[in-house]
Amino acid sequence: MSVHTLKTIPVTIAFIVICAVIVLLHYIIFQQTDYSHESVILFGALDQQLISKGQIWRLLTYAFGHMSMIHFFINLPILFILSRSLERFFGSFKFFLFLILTSISGGILFYFFYEGPMPISGSSGPVFGFIGILTFLTVRYFDRISANDKRFTVMMLLIGFVSTFLIPNVAISVHLGGFFGGILVAFIDSLFKQEKVQTTE
């Protein structure tokens, strides 16, 4: 990938670099590739009790950390593919807003519905938000979407389904919060586009 291409997706690159730096800091500080309760809390993980005490930034910061190095490297390819595509389509500013909003929507559902024993970190909230955005675009503009893009959306939905409901110890609430948050922001964005078209006619 050329330098010119990378310059067109600055938010994607920044997001991945921040995630990678946190993974590296985890290893430097704790000397382990599988993280503990203490280590993920230090780097902004979701924790219902701490959020209730006022640490609401965790509704966002969890999205930049991970539960292990393996977790990060599993998420990385899908994160990069989805982020790159959507940032090019929407532009960096709007994509940045979607990244923030879908991360928070995943965090909010975690806060109200998660019943697991561990605090949670990972980019699953925004990743599923991106899948939600992609799903909305495919349905909303079905006749304009190429067959390849439709297959890609179906593949992402299948991966999302498997990783949410068939893999144990997954924070389902974060996945669903991100996914439906993505659908919502894409729907709202489409309304603004429709209003703009009607205004210029």
Quick summary:
The chain is mostly helical. Helices cover 75% and strands 0% of the residues. Helix 6 (69-90) crosses helix 7 (92-113).
Mean pLDDT: 91
- What fold name goes in the CATH topology slot? Rhomboid-like fold
Main sheet properties: none
Low-confidence stretches: 197-201
Question: So what's the CATH class?
Answer: Mainly Alpha
How many helices? Answer: 10
The geometry reads as globular
Rg calc: 17 Å
Number of strands: 0
Please identify, by name, the CATH architecture. Up-down Bundle
At the fourth level of CATH, the homologous superfamily is: Rhomboid-like
Helicity, in percent?
A: over 70%
When the domains are counted, the total is 1
Global structural class: mainly alpha
* Termini gap: 40 Å
- How much of the sequence lies in strands comes to under 5%
Which H/E pattern describes the elements?
A: HHHHHHHHHH
